[in-house]
C-alpha cells in the first residue's frame, strides 16, 4: 500500500513498501554508488519492490538507502506513459565499468529491451554517482551527465543524501 502526495500538477510522490528505506547494518563493500531507477511499462512500483529484494539477495551489492518514488512525465519521446523514478544507494566493491555491466544484466533480468533512445521500458538503471569518482568514456559518464537537470533525479535524491 502506497501513500501519495501531489508535488505539482504533473508530479506525484509515493511512499510505501521499501521506498524509502534505510539499512541499519554495516558492510565491508568499498564504494558507495547512487543509482537512478525508472520505468513506465507494467506495474513499476511492484517491479521496484522486486528489484529491492533481488538486490538484497546479491552478495556483490548492499542496499543502504532508497528514496520515495516519483511519478513524472516522460522527456525526449513524449508519446508514452508517465515514468516512475527513485534512487537506490548501494555499496559494492565492483569497479565502475564492471558495475555498469552488472546493472545491464539486472535490467535484462527484469525484461528491459533496448529499442530506441528514451523508449518505454520495464526498468532503467543509471549510475548517478560512484563514490567521488569522475569517469568519462564512450560508454560511461560519472557523474551522470544530466542528473542535475532532471526532477526525476533531484526530487528523489533530496531524501537520500
Automatic annotation (TrEMBL):
Residues forming coiled coils: none
InterPro entries: Hppk, Hppk_sf
Enzyme class, broadest EC rank: transferase
Domain 7,8-dihydro-6-hydroxymethylpterin-pyrophosphokinase positions: 35-160
Kinase keyword on record: yes
GO annotation, biological process: folic acid biosynthetic process; tetrahydrofolate biosynthetic process
Keywords of this entry: ATP-binding, Folate biosynthesis, Kinase, Nucleotide-binding, Transferase
Top-level lineage group: Bacteria
Gene3D superfamilies attached to this UniProt entry: 7,8-Dihydro-6-hydroxymethylpterin-pyrophosphokinase HPPK
One term of GO molecular function: 2-amino-4-hydroxy-6-hydroxymethyldihydropteridine diphosphokinase activity
EC numbers for this chain: 2.7.6.3
UniProt key word Transcription: no
Cross-referenced Pfam families: HPPK
Pathway: Cofactor biosynthesis; tetrahydrofolate biosynthesis; 2-amino-4-hydroxy-6-hydroxymethyl-7,8-dihydropteridine diphosphate from 7,8-dihydroneopterin triphosphate: step 4/4
Family: Belongs to the HPPK family.
Job description of the protein: Catalyzes the transfer of pyrophosphate from adenosine triphosphate (ATP) to 6-hydroxymethyl-7,8-dihydropterin, an enzymatic step in folate biosynthesis pathway.
Protein name in UniProt: 2-amino-4-hydroxy-6-hydroxymethyldihydropteridine pyrophosphokinase
Organism: Sulfurimonas paralvinellae
Organism placement in taxonomy: Bacteria, Pseudomonadati, Campylobacterota, Epsilonproteobacteria, Campylobacterales
Gene that encodes the chain: folK
Amino acid at each position: 500500500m502506497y501513500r501519495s502526495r501531489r508535488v505539482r500538477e504533473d508530479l506525484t510522490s509515493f511512499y510505501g513498501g521499501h521506498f524509502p528505506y534505510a539499512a541499519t547494518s554495516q558492510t565491508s563493500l568499498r564504494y558507495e554508488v547512487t543509482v537512478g531507477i525508472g520505468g513506465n511499462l507494467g506495474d513499476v512500483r511492484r517491479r521496484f519492490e522486486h528489484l529491492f529484494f533481488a538486490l538484497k539477495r546479491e552478495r556483490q551489492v548492499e542496499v543502504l538507502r532508497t528514496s520515495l518514488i516519483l511519478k513524472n512525465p516522460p522527456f525526449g519521446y513524449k508519446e508514452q506513459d508517465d515514468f516512475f523514478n527513485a534512487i537506490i544507494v548501494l555499496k559494492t566493491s565492483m569497479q565502475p565499468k564492471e558495475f555498469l555491466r552488472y546493472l545491464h544484466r539486472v535490467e535484462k533480468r527484469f525484461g528491459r529491451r533496448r529499442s530506441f533512445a528514451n523508449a518505454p521500458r520495464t526498468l532503467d538503471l543509471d549510475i548517478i554517482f560512484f563514490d567521488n569518482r569522475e569517469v568519462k568514456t564512450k560508454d560511461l559518464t560519472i557523474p551522470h551527465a544530466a542528473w542535475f537537470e532532471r526532477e526525476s533525479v533531484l526530487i528523489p535524491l533530496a531524501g537520500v543524501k
